[in-house]
Amino acid sequence: MEKCPQCGTDRQQDEQGQYLGFCDGCGHKFTTTPKPQSQPESQSQPESQSLEEYEKDYVARVIPDEGETDAGGDDGGDTGGVESAGGAIWIPGQDNAGEQPIYFEDNPKTVGRTDVSELLKSRGNDPLQVSRKQFTISKESDTYYIEDGKTSVQDNPSGNHTTVNGKDITGKGKVELNDGDTIGVATVLDVTFRMS
Question: Which of 87, 121, 169, 172 is the one with CA 20 to 30 A from 2?
Fold first, then answer.
């Protein structure tokens, strides 16, 4: 199986056996989409999927349905090699199911609507209050930064603003994150940044 060049995570496949265009562990975008060896040649499937399709698929896989168990067996789950990355934001779980982490590597990564939409729906909030790309987290040396504005992976600032420990950071450039900082997503959700 192909591995991610950034974090070494096995490259995942969708239900049709097509390799995903992005790494589940770190979000790395693969430059090519090889066909799996088990895929019959006669089946015609698109070789890549849009970022929005990938994000929906990713959220569906990392936030299991109620009563569903981890299909990973006793291998420690699918975050085994990623936890060593150092930083993550922790999103409250649905129905008191515990927090869900989003880990960050060296590449800038956006967090947005698809990461929190199911949780917001379960709480009766409108997910459209959160921008598709709400904020970007990046790592430089051993320091993590958050930015809500135009970046290499975010086209514009979010529509409903982002706060860190209650201070609005929208359009203010990079803001250093410290362990335990509270990130306000629009006005509908607070998540926590933690160093592992």
Answer: 87
| Cβ 119 vs Cβ 189: under 8 Å | yes
Q: Rounded distance, CA 17 to CA 47, Å?
A: 11
- Per-residue pLDDT tens over the stretch 137-193: 988 888 899 999 887 778 888 888 999 999 999 989 999 999 999 999 988 999 999
Confirm if 126 and 120 have CB atoms less than 8 A apart.
Answer: yes
Please, what CATH class does the domain formed by 86-195 belong to?
mainly beta
CA separation for the pair 38, 82 (Å, rounded): 27
Q: Which residues contact 140 (CB under 8 A, 6 or more apart)?
A: none
Could you give the CA distance from residue 179 to residue 192 in angstroms, rounded to a whole number? 8
Pairing mode of beta strands 167-168, 109-111: unpaired
E-strand spans in 18-173?
87-91, 100-104, 109-111, 135-140, 143-147, 162-164, 167-168
Torsion, Cα 109 110 114 115, to 10 degrees, reads 60
- Considering the entire predicted model, what is its pTM? 0.55
